């Protein structure tokens, strides 16, 4: 997808960025901009941004050689084209991208959702409710984006400002009345939402995560807090009243706010009535009204996601009955406590659970509905937070009866290191069964399951939604699991014992 955004009309940087200082001219008139020097086309304005691995200011000459007509930077530069100096070039980039796209968020209602866990599911629940209410809704999540005309895969939950502005502009052009955006902590730090104006900012939870990326839990909290800066003056923030960091943020927020809760106090609450492996029912209460909600997706975490989605839509005036119809219409999502049913006599669930907190929630949920053993297949991707890996092992050891550690990708030296890191979290490493081949690990787990048991398969985070297809480089866990289950069920109606090579990594 193009990293450049253009406009037929053009934008005056002096009007758009009144605090900026100009060198080599009194103003800069931009019809297109780009933040990657290798993508610059003649006549475009180059935005010099400091990235993780390089400083865009060091590549200004390259951008000018490719035809950049002007530069936006954070310091004066001795170059032959006009320079606009700003305090934050990331912020300026976002503002310019949305201005070139004719400010799409002026004509479409935008909801931003952030949190450690539950962002994607909450976004799609919000979308489902609003659609039941008659709205046309675009979305941009880690599963993909829907611009109101078609759905496409996307590799990141929060794309850069050029793509963000382009997507929102397409949603608005295609008649969308609302847009739901998943805001990752990395995207917030890099100000990928700069230029966006939110009607609602929703926080699912704020736990310890991405410490390697942000440096500390405090910095991670600050990253999530940045979502509030994109709220309109008339916007509303929604917080999880049972999450301590969300409550802390709620107490600091100087904007109209709502809170949701299951165990504590909130404007919108829920209480679980019953829960089985195949569904759960809870009472949703808003003000003086209470209604039952029956969902095919189970767990307290899903109740929280439903509450956040309900709160967002109640802000827009959607009635409670429509809220319930929307929540109940979402029966499954790829890799989100996805139940696999192929006639087997035990439960099988797929969950990405890429954080120790997410894994703990998944195991706790399934333990409550499992009468037999809980068998967990887990792995972590090479790019995962190394601080998180031993915690995954610790949670798996404590929360499951059998733990199988495998690769989440194609294997290799770095994948072996990932396995070692996970095993480091085990108090008794001998309890950790290692089967490097992911398909064989799943096969072995299924072969060990008996009536009343539950198998949880976690760690794969490569799924992308494209209509009813999924594009990715490796087989999906759900496809592999279904294939293996059908093989087992078809063999005279019994579940055969599979001999898998279980190894112990040298310490």
From TrEMBL:
GO terms for biological process: cell division; cell wall organization; peptidoglycan biosynthetic process; regulation of cell shape. Residues 335-460 form the Mur ligase C-terminal domain. It is found in: Cytoplasm. GO terms for molecular function: ATP binding; UDP-N-acetylmuramoyl-L-alanyl-D-glutamate--D-lysine ligase activity. Residues 113-313 form the Mur ligase central domain. Its EC number is 6.3.2.37. Pathway: Cell wall biogenesis; peptidoglycan biosynthesis. The keyword Hydrolase does not apply. It comes from the Bacteria. Pfam families: Mur_ligase_C, Mur_ligase_M. It is an enzyme of class 6 (ligase). One of its GO terms (cellular component) is cytoplasm. Its main location: cytoplasm. Keywords: Cell cycle, Cell division, Cell shape, Cell wall biogenesis/degradation, Ligase, Peptidoglycan synthesis. PANTHER family: MUR LIGASE FAMILY MEMBER, UDP-N-ACETYLMURAMOYL-L-ALANYL-D-GLUTAMATE--2,6-DIAMINOPIMELATE LIGASE MURE HOMOLOG, CHLOROPLASTIC. Belongs to the MurCDEF family. MurE subfamily. This is MurE-like ligase. It comes from Bremerella volcania.
